[in-house]
Specification:
three-stranded antiparallel sheet; single chain; 3 strands; mainly beta
Length: 53
């Protein structure tokens, strides 16, 4: 039989509504991790003081 390759295939970047995942480079032990980048769920609005009567 043929020898299995030691390298992992490159995975495309995953995109969903609130986060993205990227494949990281393999470390010295061969572990391949994934980085998760979160986007905020809500927007911040600058505070405005209410009108005085």
């Amino acid at each position: 039989m043929s020898e299995q390759s030691k390298s992992r295939p490159k995975v495309p970047e995953g995109k969903v509504r609130f986060h993205k995942t990227k494949q990281m480079e393999a470390n010295e032990k061969g572990f391949v991790g994934y980085q998760t980048i979160w986007e905020s769920f809500q927007k911040e609005v600058a505070y405005k003081a209410p009108k005085r009567p």
